[in-house]
Protein backbone atom coordinates (compact mmCIF):
# COMPACT_ATOMS: atom_id res chain seq x y z
CA UNK A 1 0.00 0.00 0.00
CA UNK A 2 1.06 3.62 -0.39
CA UNK A 3 3.09 4.76 2.57
CA UNK A 4 3.42 8.44 1.82
CA UNK A 5 0.17 10.25 1.54
CA UNK A 6 0.84 13.78 0.44
CA UNK A 7 4.23 12.92 -1.11
CA UNK A 8 5.05 14.72 -4.31
CA UNK A 9 3.69 12.79 -7.29
CA UNK A 10 1.95 10.14 -5.10
CA UNK A 11 -1.79 9.59 -4.99
CA UNK A 12 -3.27 10.68 -1.62
CA UNK A 13 -4.57 8.01 0.71
CA UNK A 14 -8.24 8.32 1.45
CA UNK A 15 -9.67 8.22 4.94
CA UNK A 16 -13.35 9.18 5.02
CA UNK A 17 -13.40 9.39 8.83
CA UNK A 18 -11.80 12.83 8.42
CA UNK A 19 -13.18 15.08 5.73
CA UNK A 20 -12.22 18.68 5.03
CA UNK A 21 -14.36 21.05 2.99
CA UNK A 22 -13.39 24.41 1.45
CA UNK A 23 -15.30 27.54 2.32
CA UNK A 24 -18.99 26.93 1.74
CA UNK A 25 -20.83 29.50 -0.37
CA UNK A 26 -23.91 30.57 1.63
CA UNK A 27 -27.27 30.25 -0.04
CA UNK A 28 -30.70 30.63 1.50
CA UNK A 29 -33.44 28.20 0.55
CA UNK A 30 -36.30 29.53 -1.61
CA UNK A 31 -38.56 29.85 1.46
CA UNK A 32 -36.02 32.11 3.20
CA UNK A 33 -34.66 29.43 5.52
CA UNK A 34 -30.90 29.06 5.83
CA UNK A 35 -30.78 25.37 4.84
CA UNK A 36 -32.47 23.79 1.83
CA UNK A 37 -33.18 20.26 3.14
CA UNK A 38 -35.27 19.02 6.02
CA UNK A 39 -32.25 17.47 7.74
CA UNK A 40 -30.19 20.64 7.25
CA UNK A 41 -32.98 22.66 8.82
CA UNK A 42 -33.17 20.16 11.69
CA UNK A 43 -29.52 21.00 12.39
CA UNK A 44 -30.27 24.75 12.30
CA UNK A 45 -33.28 24.33 14.57
CA UNK A 46 -31.20 22.41 17.13
CA UNK A 47 -28.73 25.32 17.16
CA UNK A 48 -31.41 27.98 17.45
CA UNK A 49 -33.36 26.12 20.15
CA UNK A 50 -30.16 25.85 22.24
CA UNK A 51 -29.00 29.46 21.86
CA UNK A 52 -29.36 31.75 24.86
CA UNK A 53 -28.91 35.00 22.92
CA UNK A 54 -30.79 35.55 19.62
CA UNK A 55 -28.58 38.56 18.86
CA UNK A 56 -25.47 36.37 18.78
CA UNK A 57 -27.28 34.01 16.41
CA UNK A 58 -28.05 36.89 14.09
CA UNK A 59 -24.41 38.01 14.11
CA UNK A 60 -23.30 34.41 13.54
CA UNK A 61 -25.62 34.11 10.53
CA UNK A 62 -24.22 37.37 9.18
CA UNK A 63 -20.66 36.08 9.69
CA UNK A 64 -21.56 32.93 7.77
CA UNK A 65 -23.13 35.02 5.00
CA UNK A 66 -20.04 37.20 4.66
CA UNK A 67 -17.67 34.22 4.33
CA UNK A 68 -16.00 34.49 7.75
CA UNK A 69 -15.86 30.69 8.13
CA UNK A 70 -12.73 29.08 6.69
CA UNK A 71 -12.45 25.44 5.57
CA UNK A 72 -14.43 23.04 7.76
CA UNK A 73 -13.06 19.70 9.01
CA UNK A 74 -15.50 16.99 10.12
CA UNK A 75 -14.55 13.94 12.20
CA UNK A 76 -16.76 11.66 14.33
CA UNK A 77 -18.34 13.81 17.02
CA UNK A 78 -16.61 17.05 16.01
CA UNK A 79 -16.84 19.90 13.47
CA UNK A 80 -13.88 22.32 13.44
CA UNK A 81 -13.05 25.50 11.53
CA UNK A 82 -11.25 28.79 11.90
CA UNK A 83 -13.69 31.70 12.00
CA UNK A 84 -12.60 35.28 11.39
CA UNK A 85 -13.71 37.87 13.91
CA UNK A 86 -12.53 41.30 14.94
CA UNK A 87 -8.85 40.46 15.36
CA UNK A 88 -6.32 39.66 12.65
CA UNK A 89 -5.93 35.96 13.50
CA UNK A 90 -9.04 33.78 13.29
CA UNK A 91 -10.54 31.92 16.23
CA UNK A 92 -10.45 28.14 16.43
CA UNK A 93 -14.07 27.08 16.72
CA UNK A 94 -15.60 23.63 17.10
CA UNK A 95 -18.95 21.99 17.62
CA UNK A 96 -19.02 18.69 19.51
CA UNK A 97 -21.80 16.14 19.63
CA UNK A 98 -22.35 12.57 20.75
CA UNK A 99 -21.72 9.80 18.26
CA UNK A 100 -24.41 7.24 17.64
CA UNK A 101 -23.94 3.96 19.52
CA UNK A 102 -24.02 0.48 18.04
CA UNK A 103 -27.72 0.00 18.83
CA UNK A 104 -28.54 3.31 17.16
CA UNK A 105 -26.63 2.35 14.02
CA UNK A 106 -28.41 -1.01 13.97
CA UNK A 107 -31.75 0.82 14.01
CA UNK A 108 -30.52 3.15 11.27
CA UNK A 109 -29.32 0.30 9.05
CA UNK A 110 -32.49 -1.73 9.65
CA UNK A 111 -34.63 1.26 8.67
CA UNK A 112 -32.42 2.20 5.72
CA UNK A 113 -32.57 -1.30 4.23
CA UNK A 114 -36.23 -1.90 5.04
CA UNK A 115 -37.24 -0.66 1.58
CA UNK A 116 -35.20 -0.51 -1.66
CA UNK A 117 -36.23 3.11 -2.23
CA UNK A 118 -34.54 4.09 1.04
CA UNK A 119 -31.19 2.83 -0.23
CA UNK A 120 -31.76 4.50 -3.60
CA UNK A 121 -32.50 7.80 -1.85
CA UNK A 122 -29.32 7.63 0.25
CA UNK A 123 -27.22 6.87 -2.83
CA UNK A 124 -28.80 9.96 -4.40
CA UNK A 125 -27.70 12.07 -1.38
CA UNK A 126 -31.24 12.27 -0.03
CA UNK A 127 -32.43 11.19 3.43
CA UNK A 128 -35.81 9.44 3.60
CA UNK A 129 -38.11 10.92 6.24
CA UNK A 130 -38.44 7.42 7.71
CA UNK A 131 -34.89 7.77 9.10
CA UNK A 132 -36.06 10.75 11.17
CA UNK A 133 -37.34 8.19 13.67
CA UNK A 134 -33.82 6.89 14.46
CA UNK A 135 -33.13 8.33 17.90
CA UNK A 136 -29.89 10.29 18.10
CA UNK A 137 -29.33 10.68 14.36
CA UNK A 138 -30.66 14.20 14.02
CA UNK A 139 -29.55 16.74 16.62
CA UNK A 140 -31.96 17.72 19.37
CA UNK A 141 -31.77 20.90 21.47
CA UNK A 142 -28.68 20.63 23.67
CA UNK A 143 -26.92 18.06 21.43
CA UNK A 144 -24.57 20.59 19.85
CA UNK A 145 -21.85 21.71 22.26
CA UNK A 146 -19.93 24.79 21.01
CA UNK A 147 -16.37 25.74 21.93
CA UNK A 148 -14.32 28.70 20.69
CA UNK A 149 -10.97 30.29 21.46
CA UNK A 150 -12.56 33.76 21.54
CA UNK A 151 -13.17 35.56 24.88
CA UNK A 152 -16.94 35.70 24.34
CA UNK A 153 -18.79 33.53 26.88
CA UNK A 154 -22.01 33.41 24.85
CA UNK A 155 -23.69 30.04 24.31
CA UNK A 156 -23.00 29.85 21.48
CA UNK A 157 -20.73 32.76 20.58
CA UNK A 158 -21.19 34.32 17.17
CA UNK A 159 -18.21 32.36 15.76
CA UNK A 160 -19.68 29.00 16.82
CA UNK A 161 -23.07 30.07 15.48
CA UNK A 162 -21.47 30.96 12.13
CA UNK A 163 -19.81 27.53 12.00
CA UNK A 164 -23.15 25.83 12.77
CA UNK A 165 -24.92 27.71 10.00
CA UNK A 166 -22.24 26.85 7.46
CA UNK A 167 -22.23 23.21 8.60
CA UNK A 168 -25.93 23.11 7.69
CA UNK A 169 -24.92 23.92 4.12
CA UNK A 170 -22.56 20.93 4.13
CA UNK A 171 -25.42 18.71 5.26
CA UNK A 172 -27.57 20.04 2.42
CA UNK A 173 -24.95 19.00 -0.12
CA UNK A 174 -24.13 15.60 1.37
CA UNK A 175 -26.11 13.90 4.17
CA UNK A 176 -23.21 11.48 4.71
CA UNK A 177 -21.53 14.41 6.47
CA UNK A 178 -24.23 14.07 9.14
CA UNK A 179 -23.53 10.34 9.41
CA UNK A 180 -19.82 11.10 9.81
CA UNK A 181 -20.60 13.59 12.57
CA UNK A 182 -22.52 10.81 14.29
CA UNK A 183 -19.59 8.39 14.01
CA UNK A 184 -19.46 6.49 10.71
CA UNK A 185 -17.85 7.22 7.37
CA UNK A 186 -19.50 6.93 3.98
CA UNK A 187 -17.48 3.89 2.84
CA UNK A 188 -18.40 1.86 5.92
CA UNK A 189 -22.08 2.73 5.68
CA UNK A 190 -22.27 2.01 1.95
CA UNK A 191 -20.49 -1.31 2.46
CA UNK A 192 -22.89 -2.32 5.22
CA UNK A 193 -25.95 -1.15 3.26
CA UNK A 194 -24.72 -3.16 0.26
CA UNK A 195 -24.07 -6.24 2.39
CA UNK A 196 -27.50 -6.13 4.02
CA UNK A 197 -29.25 -5.46 0.75
CA UNK A 198 -27.39 -8.37 -0.88
CA UNK A 199 -28.28 -10.65 2.03
CA UNK A 200 -31.94 -9.75 1.76
CA UNK A 201 -31.93 -10.20 -2.03
CA UNK A 202 -30.15 -13.55 -1.69
CA UNK A 203 -32.68 -14.74 0.88
CA UNK A 204 -35.57 -13.72 -1.37
CA UNK A 205 -33.95 -15.43 -4.37
CA UNK A 206 -33.29 -18.66 -2.46
CA UNK A 207 -36.85 -18.71 -1.18
CA UNK A 208 -38.25 -18.24 -4.69
CA UNK A 209 -35.87 -20.44 -6.72
CA UNK A 210 -36.43 -24.19 -7.16
CA UNK A 211 -33.68 -26.58 -6.14
CA UNK A 212 -31.19 -27.21 -8.95
CA UNK A 213 -29.64 -30.63 -9.61
CA UNK A 214 -25.91 -30.78 -8.89
CA UNK A 215 -23.02 -32.83 -10.29
CA UNK A 216 -19.86 -33.61 -8.24
CA UNK A 217 -16.76 -31.93 -9.70
CA UNK A 218 -14.81 -35.21 -9.41
CA UNK A 219 -17.32 -36.95 -11.71
CA UNK A 220 -16.91 -34.26 -14.36
CA UNK A 221 -13.09 -34.43 -14.11
CA UNK A 222 -13.08 -38.25 -14.38
CA UNK A 223 -15.32 -38.13 -17.46
CA UNK A 224 -13.04 -35.53 -19.06
CA UNK A 225 -9.93 -37.66 -18.43
CA UNK A 226 -11.58 -40.79 -19.83
CA UNK A 227 -12.61 -38.98 -23.01
CA UNK A 228 -9.10 -37.59 -23.54
CA UNK A 229 -10.43 -34.05 -23.93
CA UNK A 230 -8.13 -31.29 -22.66
CA UNK A 231 -9.15 -29.29 -19.66
CA UNK A 232 -10.43 -25.78 -20.41
CA UNK A 233 -7.90 -22.94 -19.99
CA UNK A 234 -7.77 -21.11 -16.65
CA UNK A 235 -10.27 -18.34 -16.21
CA UNK A 236 -8.91 -14.78 -16.64
CA UNK A 237 -8.01 -12.89 -13.48
CA UNK A 238 -10.88 -10.52 -12.57
CA UNK A 239 -10.34 -6.77 -12.46
CA UNK A 240 -10.86 -6.63 -8.68
CA UNK A 241 -11.05 -9.02 -5.72
CA UNK A 242 -14.29 -10.88 -5.21
CA UNK A 243 -16.62 -10.06 -2.34
CA UNK A 244 -16.86 -12.49 0.58
CA UNK A 245 -19.95 -14.60 1.03
CA UNK A 246 -22.87 -13.39 3.14
CA UNK A 247 -22.64 -15.42 6.36
CA UNK A 248 -25.99 -16.45 7.83
CA UNK A 249 -26.57 -15.70 11.52
CA UNK A 250 -25.70 -18.72 13.65
CA UNK A 251 -25.11 -18.50 17.41
CA UNK A 252 -22.70 -21.48 17.23
CA UNK A 253 -20.63 -20.10 14.31
CA UNK A 254 -17.51 -17.92 14.65
CA UNK A 255 -17.90 -14.16 14.67
CA UNK A 256 -19.36 -13.33 11.21
CA UNK A 257 -17.65 -9.91 11.20
CA UNK A 258 -14.26 -11.55 11.79
CA UNK A 259 -14.99 -14.10 9.07
CA UNK A 260 -16.01 -11.34 6.68
CA UNK A 261 -12.83 -9.39 7.44
CA UNK A 262 -10.55 -12.40 6.98
CA UNK A 263 -12.33 -13.53 3.81
CA UNK A 264 -12.05 -10.06 2.26
CA UNK A 265 -8.39 -9.93 3.31
CA UNK A 266 -7.63 -13.33 1.74
CA UNK A 267 -9.40 -12.35 -1.48
CA UNK A 268 -7.45 -9.10 -1.77
CA UNK A 269 -4.09 -10.78 -1.12
CA UNK A 270 -4.86 -13.59 -3.59
CA UNK A 271 -5.86 -11.08 -6.26
CA UNK A 272 -2.63 -9.10 -5.84
CA UNK A 273 -0.58 -12.30 -5.95
CA UNK A 274 -2.36 -13.51 -9.11
CA UNK A 275 -1.86 -10.22 -10.92
CA UNK A 276 1.66 -9.30 -9.74
CA UNK A 277 3.24 -12.49 -8.41
CA UNK A 278 4.02 -10.60 -5.20
CA UNK A 279 2.42 -10.83 -1.76
CA UNK A 280 2.59 -7.33 -0.23
CA UNK A 281 2.01 -8.68 3.27
CA UNK A 282 4.71 -11.36 3.35
CA UNK A 283 7.49 -8.97 4.42
CA UNK A 284 5.57 -7.47 7.35
CA UNK A 285 6.27 -8.40 10.96
CA UNK A 286 3.38 -9.87 12.99
CA UNK A 287 2.92 -6.48 14.70
CA UNK A 288 2.87 -4.57 11.40
CA UNK A 289 0.41 -7.07 9.96
CA UNK A 290 -1.87 -6.76 13.01
CA UNK A 291 -1.83 -2.97 12.70
CA UNK A 292 -2.55 -3.22 8.97
CA UNK A 293 -5.47 -5.57 9.61
CA UNK A 294 -6.95 -3.32 12.27
CA UNK A 295 -6.49 -0.24 10.07
CA UNK A 296 -8.34 -1.97 7.22
CA UNK A 297 -11.29 -2.72 9.49
CA UNK A 298 -14.14 -0.42 8.40
CA UNK A 299 -15.16 0.54 11.95
CA UNK A 300 -15.36 4.29 12.63
CA UNK A 301 -14.50 4.99 16.23
CA UNK A 302 -14.46 2.33 18.92
CA UNK A 303 -17.63 0.44 18.13
CA UNK A 304 -18.24 -2.93 19.77
CA UNK A 305 -16.86 -4.87 16.79
CA UNK A 306 -13.80 -2.58 16.58
CA UNK A 307 -13.11 -2.94 20.31
CA UNK A 308 -13.29 -6.73 20.02
CA UNK A 309 -10.89 -6.74 17.05
CA UNK A 310 -8.42 -4.46 18.81
CA UNK A 311 -8.61 -6.51 22.01
CA UNK A 312 -7.96 -9.82 20.28
CA UNK A 313 -5.14 -8.55 18.06
CA UNK A 314 -3.46 -6.68 20.92
CA UNK A 315 -3.70 -9.69 23.25
CA UNK A 316 -2.13 -11.97 20.62
CA UNK A 317 0.92 -9.67 20.41
CA UNK A 318 1.22 -8.76 24.11
CA UNK A 319 0.19 -5.15 23.49
CA UNK A 320 -2.67 -3.04 24.84
CA UNK A 321 -5.71 -1.97 22.79
CA UNK A 322 -4.53 1.63 23.25
CA UNK A 323 -1.15 0.72 21.75
CA UNK A 324 -2.94 -0.79 18.78
CA UNK A 325 -5.35 2.16 18.38
CA UNK A 326 -2.43 4.60 18.33
CA UNK A 327 -0.56 2.41 15.81
CA UNK A 328 -3.69 2.19 13.62
CA UNK A 329 -3.90 5.99 13.57
CA UNK A 330 -0.24 6.08 12.45
CA UNK A 331 -0.85 3.44 9.75
CA UNK A 332 -3.85 5.31 8.41
CA UNK A 333 -1.73 8.44 8.39
CA UNK A 334 1.15 7.00 6.38
CA UNK A 335 1.15 3.19 6.13
CA UNK A 336 4.28 1.33 7.23
CA UNK A 337 6.29 4.56 7.05
CA UNK A 338 3.78 6.24 9.36
CA UNK A 339 4.06 3.38 11.86
CA UNK A 340 7.85 3.69 11.77
CA UNK A 341 7.55 7.41 12.54
CA UNK A 342 5.40 6.58 15.58
CA UNK A 343 7.83 4.01 16.96
CA UNK A 344 11.29 5.17 15.87
CA UNK A 345 13.35 8.05 17.27
CA UNK A 346 16.34 8.99 15.09
CA UNK A 347 18.81 11.78 14.32
CA UNK A 348 18.23 13.23 10.85
CA UNK A 349 21.18 14.60 8.91
CA UNK A 350 21.56 18.30 8.26
CA UNK A 351 19.21 19.62 5.63
CA UNK A 352 15.39 19.53 5.66
CA UNK A 353 15.21 19.28 9.46
CA UNK A 354 17.41 22.36 9.92
CA UNK A 355 15.30 24.35 7.44
CA UNK A 356 12.01 23.44 9.12
CA UNK A 357 12.13 25.86 12.08
CA UNK A 358 12.89 28.96 9.98
CA UNK A 359 10.02 27.97 7.68
CA UNK A 360 7.65 27.61 10.65
CA UNK A 361 8.79 30.94 12.12
CA UNK A 362 8.21 32.64 8.78
CA UNK A 363 4.68 31.19 8.79
CA UNK A 364 4.08 32.64 12.29
CA UNK A 365 4.66 29.38 14.18
CA UNK A 366 7.69 30.31 16.32
CA UNK A 367 7.19 28.10 19.39
CA UNK A 368 8.49 24.72 18.13
CA UNK A 369 11.42 23.20 20.02
CA UNK A 370 13.73 20.68 18.23
CA UNK A 371 14.74 17.30 19.65
CA UNK A 372 16.10 14.45 17.52
CA UNK A 373 13.67 14.14 14.57
CA UNK A 374 10.88 16.05 16.34
CA UNK A 375 9.68 19.64 16.63
CA UNK A 376 7.27 20.21 19.53
CA UNK A 377 5.10 22.71 21.36
CA UNK A 378 3.01 21.90 24.44
CA UNK A 379 0.27 20.29 22.35
CA UNK A 380 1.53 20.02 18.73
CA UNK A 381 4.39 18.04 17.26
CA UNK A 382 5.93 17.45 13.84
CA UNK A 383 8.04 14.33 13.23
CA UNK A 384 10.36 13.93 10.26
CA UNK A 385 10.19 10.41 8.79
CA UNK A 386 12.97 8.66 6.98
CA UNK A 387 10.85 9.05 3.84
CA UNK A 388 11.41 12.83 3.99
CA UNK A 389 7.82 13.63 5.00
CA UNK A 390 6.64 15.52 8.07
CA UNK A 391 3.99 13.83 10.20
CA UNK A 392 1.68 15.77 12.52
CA UNK A 393 0.97 14.72 16.13
CA UNK A 394 -1.27 16.17 18.82
CA UNK A 395 -1.43 15.83 22.61
CA UNK A 396 -3.24 17.48 25.49
CA UNK A 397 -1.10 20.30 26.85
CA UNK A 398 1.32 19.12 29.52
CA UNK A 399 0.97 15.42 28.66
CA UNK A 400 3.28 13.22 26.64
CA UNK A 401 0.40 11.41 24.94
CA UNK A 402 1.06 12.03 21.27
CA UNK A 403 -1.41 10.80 18.63
CA UNK A 404 -0.98 10.98 14.84
CA UNK A 405 -3.19 13.61 13.22
CA UNK A 406 -3.53 15.01 9.70
CA UNK A 407 -1.75 14.06 6.50
CA UNK A 408 2.05 13.89 6.05
CA UNK A 409 3.65 16.47 3.82
CA UNK A 410 7.12 17.21 2.50
CA UNK A 411 6.62 20.78 3.76
CA UNK A 412 6.44 21.16 7.57
CA UNK A 413 4.14 24.18 7.24
CA UNK A 414 1.80 22.13 5.03
CA UNK A 415 1.73 19.26 7.53
CA UNK A 416 1.01 21.68 10.39
CA UNK A 417 -1.71 23.44 8.41
CA UNK A 418 -3.43 20.10 7.75
CA UNK A 419 -3.05 19.17 11.43
CA UNK A 420 -4.75 22.39 12.49
CA UNK A 421 -7.50 21.92 9.89
CA UNK A 422 -7.05 25.28 8.24
Fold and architecture overview:
- The chain is α+β, with helices and mostly antiparallel strands.
- It contains 14 helices and ten strands.
- A hairpin with a 3-residue loop joins β7 (374-376) and β8.
- The protein is globular.
- The two termini are 28 Å apart.
Strand and helix map with partners:
Layout: E1 19-21, H1 38-50, H2 54-65, E2 69-75, E3 78-83, E4 91-96, H3 102-112, H4 116-123, E5 145-148, H5 158-173, H6 176-181, H7 186-208, H8 217-227, H9 256-276, H10 286-296, H11 304-316, H12 321-343, H13 352-362, E6 369-371, E7 374-376, E8 380-384, E9 390-394, E10 403-404, H14 412-420
Antiparallel strand pairs: 1-2, 2-3, 3-4, 4-5, 6-7, 7-8, 8-9, 9-10
Amino acid sequence: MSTARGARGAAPRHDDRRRSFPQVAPREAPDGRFAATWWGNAWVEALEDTALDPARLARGKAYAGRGHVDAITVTPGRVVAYVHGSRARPYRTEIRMRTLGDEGWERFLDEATARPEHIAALLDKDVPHALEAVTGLLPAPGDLVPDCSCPDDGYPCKHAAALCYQAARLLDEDPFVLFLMRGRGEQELLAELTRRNAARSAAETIAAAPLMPTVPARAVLDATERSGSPLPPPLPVPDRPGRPAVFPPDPDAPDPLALDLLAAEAAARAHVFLTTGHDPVASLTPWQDAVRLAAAHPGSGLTASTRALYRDLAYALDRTPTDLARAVAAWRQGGAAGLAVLEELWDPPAGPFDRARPALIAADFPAFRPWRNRLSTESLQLRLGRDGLWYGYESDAGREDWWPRGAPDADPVGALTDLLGR
